[in-house]
Amino acid sequence: MPSLPAWTSRTAARLLVVLLALLMTQSGTGSEARTAPGTQSATPDRPRYDVTLRGNADGSRWTGRQRVSFHNASTGPLREVYLRLWGNGVDKCGTTGIPPAVRVSKVRGGTASRPAVNCTALRIALPKPLAHGERASVSFDVSITVPERNDRFGREGAFRFLGNALPVLAVHDARGWHLDPYVSTGESFYALASDFRVALDHPSNLKVPATGRTSTHPGRPGRSVTVSVARRVRDFAWAAGPFRTAVETTPGGVRVKSYWAPETSATGVNLTRKDGAAAVDRFGKEFGRYPYGEIDLVMTSEFGGGMEYPGLVLLGTTEEGSAVVHEVAHQWWYGIVGNDEYGAPWLDESFAQYANARFYGWDTRDCWSEVDWPSDRTALTNSMAYWAAHRGEYHLVYTAGSCALADLERTLGADTMARLLKRYAHDHWYGVSTTAAFKKAAQSVSDEDLSPFWKRHRIR
């Protein structure tokens, strides 16, 4: 593996260890969605998900009904939609006697084909073409079985993680349908800002942190119903287990709900809660106010690194704390300012790590190194197709990527860089960022030709 930059801060060194663990496990203002200038409108847009699920005794199986309505933003008719069943990414279509982890049945509002792309994509043909500006819906039964592995969709002891478990709509844009394969190193995900209303019926002894603003009410004897409402988010995730909990409100008015497994280090939990609350307020000032009102921090001792979802992050937590600041930064860079995580992972990972470095005051002077680059084909802007085939190089998206943005800050000046990022976030709030759009925005605030900068930093 190429050598990592020699950060000079003790805190940086500690957080870099957490970052490496994260890599190993990943085997503001305004209310309208904005897309990069000159790009074709992505569709189906403005999705609304209504979901009702019932969990079994330990939260390892969930069954129920899901409905999604959507609007056609494209100029041409929409004849089909695709559901992404990302929960099937690792085990694909299952094995004899063991079905896929996520199954869809009894589809209404369209005709389903056989699952494709290793059972991570399900085509649903619409009964008639959906014209530009029209709205339609499909509904279906869904069954979710949590795999027996410690992963973003998996379990640790008595605790269940349901990241990327809920079927969501694929995106169609100028490149066509995005039906990329699942990757365990990094993310394959690309979704448009959506509204969710999810009711989770579960045993009362389980706590259920979830994306969105949640409230829990009594259900049938021995059971409770946690209802979550989330507006303009790109995905929905939840967890379940006998968590310990605490709630606080930051000076900026964000409700931080902390959930942790009892054996998790108390020192690490306290540090994670402190840094998480500080980060959400700080990034709200730097990039635009956090719009969701609530964020859940889910902590266990053995979960490797961290994983981000809108309004909820999963965190492996030791005495040294966790990767909470990096994951909170993802609320803006991937969550609010979206991107195709398969096609351009640097647009969320490099930006989140740059924010992380600024938060901890890492010394990034001279952190860029040409020695780290294995070949001319390696570029910050490579897709996950490249990084999945060169797993040992993927850390560059974090390390070299944050260095490149730190160098851009020195090139533009700190105040100009701060204004650039805040304005860029505003212009792409709930929309989709692209490399071309960011380069154009950066060039617009500089009198210097940035072409040599992009070339040197392998931003293509």
From TrEMBL:
Binding residues for Zn(2+): 326, 330, 349
Free-text remark on how the cofactor is bound: Binds 1 zinc ion per subunit.
Molecular function as annotated in GO: metallopeptidase activity; zinc ion binding
Keyword Repeat: no
Domain Peptidase M1 membrane alanine aminopeptidase: 289-456
CDD domains per UniProt: M1_APN_like
Transmembrane regions: none
Signal sequence bounds: 1-30
One of the Pfam families matching this protein, by short name: Peptidase_M1
Cofactor names: Zn(2+)
Designated name of the protein: M1 family metallopeptidase
Lineage of origin: Bacteria, Bacillati, Actinomycetota, Actinomycetes, Kitasatosporales
